[in-house]
Design brief:
The chain is elongated. The protein has helices at 14-17, 21-37, 48-51, 57-66, 90-111, 166-173, 187-192, 194-219, 227-236, 266-289; strands at 42-44, 70-73, 77-80, 177-178, 222-223. The strands form two sheets. Strands 1-3-2 form a three-stranded antiparallel beta sheet. Strands 4-5 form a two-stranded antiparallel ribbon. It starts with 13 loop residues before the first helix and ends with a helix. It is built from ten helices and five strands. A hairpin with a 3-residue loop joins strand 2 (70-73) and strand 3.
């Protein structure tokens, strides 16, 4: 099956960040739906409810249209904007499958000692496409024809939520490393998180950043760029409600409010009952003696 491809800065893209939870889920599900069903990014009106289990699906689709992530196709439904910037066409996927089937057939013919069909020009070696992707069935170390995890194209889109940036492409080439104790966000990261920085305020944002560094230090997280992770961390950070101070309510007659008595324990209650019972028995004995 084909892979649905997403850019690594997809969640922090300005268009995606502004989506409601329902619209975000519908958008991601629509990309996966199209890749699975080879619809070339087209979502039919009648099939919209099958794409994702979200409330008010039509309203969420309208939200995606307003965000520039869905295009309206009259009489059909919607089309994912710039879908083919990252994902192959249905025709390319079918051709790929046909080539893998042909390679598999030639490999089987060779294993059975038969004369296989001639290899087409520029074709890859014939291997068993049904085996694990790390090796073929002939055990010769040649990778098989099973699809590997795709590497998204590095071309930048002009309007999609999956658009790439020069900074993202540079990170693809960078070595992954641990976070440093003095790590701080770049100017680009600060711009991406401006709304959350304003919401949290300087003090809370600094506290959140310190927690972010401690968290990834403890986890020994390796990353080429911690900036996108920090932006997502701030988006999830919540401001602390103001602490309600302790205060006393005056009672008629003045004076300080007496402290609330502590309820007696179970042992104290049982001791009191035993003492009352003993007092009753003592009175009964005195009455009998008189």
């Amino acid at each position: 099956m084909p892979w649905a491809r997403f850019d690594d800065r997809f969640p922090s893209n300005r268009k995606v960040r502004l989506l409601s939870d329902g619209a975000f889920r519908l958008y991601v599900s629509a990309i996966c739906w199209s890749a699975e069903n080879l619809t070339d990014g087209v979502i039919k009106t009648a099939e919209l409810r099958l794409v994702a289990d979200v409330r008010a699906t039509r309203a969420r689709a309208k939200e995606l249209v307003e965000a520039g992530l869905f295009d309206v196709v009259d009489g059909v439904g919607w089309k994912i904007h710039d879908y083919h910037e990252y994902n192959p066409t249905a025709e390319q996927v079918r051709a790929d499958r046909a080539q893998r089937t042909a390679r598999q057939q030639r490999w089987r013919q060779k294993k059975q000692g038969a004369t296989p069909d001639p290899d087409p020009p520029g074709s890859t070696p014939d291997v068993d496409a049904s085996t694990n992707a790390s090796r073929d069935a002939s055990r010769d170390g040649t990778r098989d024809a099973a699809p590997s995890r795709p590497v998204p194209a590095r071309t930048r889109s002009s309007g999609s939520g999956r658009e790439r940036s020069d900074r993202s492409s540079a990170r693809d080439e960078a070595a992954h490393s641990l976070i440093t104790p003095d790590w701080h966000p770049s100017h680009a990261d600060l711009d991406s998180a401006k709304a959350d920085l304003d919401r949290l305020g300087p003090a809370s944002a600094a506290t959140a950043t310190a927690k972010f560094v401690r968290h990834h230090t403890a986890k020994a997280t390796h990353a080429a760029d911690f900036g996108p992770l920090w932006v997502t961390w701030l988006a999830r950070e919540r401001t602390q409600p103001p602490t309600q101070g302790t205060f006393l309510v005056g009672l008629p007659g003045g004076g300080a409010t007496p402290p609330t008595p502590t309820p007696p324990s179970f042992q104290q209650r049982m001791a009191a009952l035993d003492a009352a019972a003993e007092a009753d028995r003592h009175r009964d004995r005195q009455g009998d003696a008189g």
